[in-house]
Specification:
ion channel; eleven-stranded mixed beta sheet; 11 strands; 222 residues; alpha/beta
């Protein structure tokens, strides 16, 4: 897979190193000469250019990329890069970094963003996920299709504890994708039994989240 990353700061370089370790091709783009530190990520391709300029993206051959990551520290730049990647080059997957949570509402399909990653939101979600049982926690927002990755730890008092996955009438526009049970990661099967303490990960439409929480939580038993 070929990935272009706009922004060669600490965030961009860290993402690049991880992707390279996983066997992907990576191109780092930055317009600041001091950011071009080839020795820090020597296996990546590097391009000194403004990722908001069509000529730069032509040089980067963005049409060959499977994924573009807008990882600069400037939300305006990240939105422009996302829009150009999607509309001008037809990049299948565009991931964008949200620096200011107040701008998160802009990171949607209209701006070419498939996945928006907000570090403050993600950190707060991970804190909630660590301490919350029976409450739905939103981990990640997928702009395309208005869907979210959400998590809920099944409380012992839930009416669904001991129920087979295949016997649950899940809300529309929701999909149970993973069950984390202790140190095990399970791909849900109809014959699997839901157990207290299971961490359930769903991809769900935003307007179905409350219905999903009611189904799984203690309130469902009242």
């Amino acid at each position: 897979m070929r990935v272009a990353i706009a922004g060669a700061g600490a965030v961009g370089r860290s993402i690049a190193a991880e992707l390279l370790d996983n066997g992907h091709e990576v191109l780092l783009i930055d317009k600041t000469p001091s950011a071009i530190s080839v020795e820090r990520v020597p296996r990546a391709e590097w391009l000194l250019a403004d990722a908001c300029e069509i000529t730069s993206l032509d040089e980067a051959a963005l049409q060959r990329c499977n994924v573009v990551i807008a990882a600069t520290g400037d939300d305006k730049v990240n939105l422009v890069v996302s829009l150009l990647a999607k509309t001008e080059y037809g990049v299948p997957r565009v991931v964008a970094r949200v620096n200011n949570p107040r701008n998160e509402w802009l990171y949607n399909e209209a701006w070419g963003v498939d996945v928006a990653v907000s570090t403050p939101r993600l950190m707060s979600a991970l804190v909630e996920e660590a301490v919350s049982v029976g409450d739905l926690v939103r981990l990640l927002r997928f702009s395309h299709g208005d869907a979210n990755l959400v998590e809920l730890t099944l409380p012992p008092e839930s009416a669904l504890t001991g129920t087979l996955v295949g016997d649950v009438s899940w809300p529309e526009d929701t999909s149970l994708v993973t069950i984390i049970r202790g140190s095990r990661v399970l791909t849900p099967k109809p014959e699997d039994t839901l157990e207290a303490g299971d961490e359930l990960l769903f991809v769900a439409a935003q307007d179905r989240e409350e219905q999903l929480e009611d189904l799984l939580s203690v309130r469902h038993t009242s």
